[in-house]
Amino acid sequence: MESLCFSPSRSPFHAGFFNTEVFKTSSSNAVKCSRLKPSIYATLSKQGVEILPSVDNISRVLPSTAPAPVPLLRVSPSSLQCESGRLLPNENLGRGVVAEGTLNAMEYLTNILASKVYDVAYESPLQLATKLSERWGVNIWLKREDLQPVFSFKLRGAYNMMAKLPKEQLERGVICSSAGNHAQGVALSAQKLGCNAVIAMPVTTPEIKWKSVERLGATVVLIGDSYDEAQTYAKKRAEEEGRTFVPPFDHPDVIIGQGTVGMEIVKQMKGPIEAIFVPVGGGGLIAGIAAYMKRVSPEVKIIGVEPFDANAMALSLHHDQRVMLDQVGGFADGVAVKVVGEETFRLCSELIDGVVLVGRDAICASIKDMFEEKRSILEPAGALALAGAEAYCKYYGLKGANVVAVTSGANMNFDRLRLVTELADVGRRREAVLATYIQEEPGSFKQFCELVGPLNITEFKYRCILDKQEALVLYRQDIFYVLPFILQKGKEYVYWPSIFCCFTITTKYVSFSFSYFL
């Protein structure tokens, strides 16, 4: 049994932007937690990597003098759903209030212009996607943040914050918690600045990711089963060792660093821009881009893009307050956050035009589009803006305009490529994945084969469920064969509310259902 004893961490926010002595320590009671170390973790141990037991069952005791924090409204991602591509407008656009201790618009603008990110980051190219532009009928420009040294925009914010730290703080080192791109950004920034960096990552982090961080010279600590547990450990260790905690998005200097993406777009784009589509997780990238664009080119729409199952910003704007998702989808893991940042939400509620939502299949289709266009493979979060731009342009019939999509990252796990490939054609409506149950009795499978025989089936799976005396059949087929086949065979009902149709065919043995999004 191993235990950790620590005090709650200090806030990462500056009390004042130009004040370097800004961190305040908590006087709260120590927190204790313990958990057995599973023996399997020992097999993962590598030189330079610490593997610690998970932080579990944590209870915080607030000081009696501190007011209790206002609990966040807990909501389900499914509580706000709409057709893909429809803009969920920000009703508070232009009504922001600058709170005490936060930066105003001019301070954000001037600090973005003076940012130090180019000591380590590139000015990423803005490229016209010619094939996609012809297909969509608009000029689609790709802001290639996937070409940065760590294949992600995260380097900008991490370095901008760390480069502003006083020398004595850098000497004490930095620490962060991340399962992906932010970790690499902090590690490379620390290498450039010559300071020690510790990166806390969940034990579920793929080996390829933590090894890439380790190669940059950082000390990797594998701890906990989730990002929240890794973050708890990182903040506790920052408190104990005097390290600076580098947050992934909710800090003015991080937002300023990400805002240089918007500055570059203005510099590189010669014609008028209709809209810039930005992937949204915690909100740092879109807040930074909006902070610059809305002061320089206020007519340009700044539109966030989120997955249907990770729509924390859309729901926060909808409720006019930060909310906490009760669950979050993990496919686009780079944007899978339950709560957006406090400062990022303040900026977004004032500056962005709204959010569009897209599904997993559309994201996979955009990954394939990017490969066919530029021979680059984006991660799901990196292709999010491209999927949102396409859905928006199709929904509103946009033609001839200039739209920009930020391709934010390319740290794709190789073992996910097969899933992406399978879902890409579904996202393009070229294939359908269908499922049905049949009775596990003589003649039922023959009857099923006769029913679907005319279809162009590309993959077929059959699973027998012994305790229910029935079988699950999954199969894929060319989408263009489905509707003619169903219309010939007859249908029990049609439900057509403008976005999808459902068909059911019933025989003696088989009930076959099919849903098709138009």
Automatic annotation (TrEMBL):
Its EC number is 4.3.1.19. PROSITE patterns: DEHYDRATASE_SER_THR. The keyword Lyase applies. Pathway: Amino-acid biosynthesis; L-isoleucine biosynthesis; 2-oxobutanoate from L-threonine: step 1/1. It catalyses: L-threonine = 2-oxobutanoate + NH4(+). Keywords: Amino-acid biosynthesis, Branched-chain amino acid biosynthesis, Isoleucine biosynthesis, Lyase, Pyridoxal phosphate, Repeat. One of its GO terms (biological process) is isoleucine biosynthetic process. It comes from Erythranthe guttata (Yellow monkey flower). InterPro entries: Ser/Thr_Dehydratase (IPR050147), Ser/Thr_deHydtase_PyrdxlP-BS (IPR000634), TD_ACT-like (IPR001721), TD_ACT-like_sf (IPR038110), Thr_deHydtase_biosynth (IPR005787), TrpB-like_PALP (IPR001926), TrpB-like_PALP_sf (IPR036052). Residues 422-476 form the ACT-like domain. This is Threonine dehydratase. It is an enzyme of class 4 (lyase). It comes from the Eukaryota. Its cofactor is pyridoxal 5'-phosphate. One of its GO terms (molecular function) is threonine deaminase activity. SUPFAM superfamilies: Tryptophan synthase beta subunit-like PLP-dependent enzymes (SSF53686). Belongs to the serine/threonine dehydratase family. NCBIfam families: ilvA_2Cterm. Residues 122-409 form the Tryptophan synthase beta chain-like PALP domain. The keyword Lyase applies.
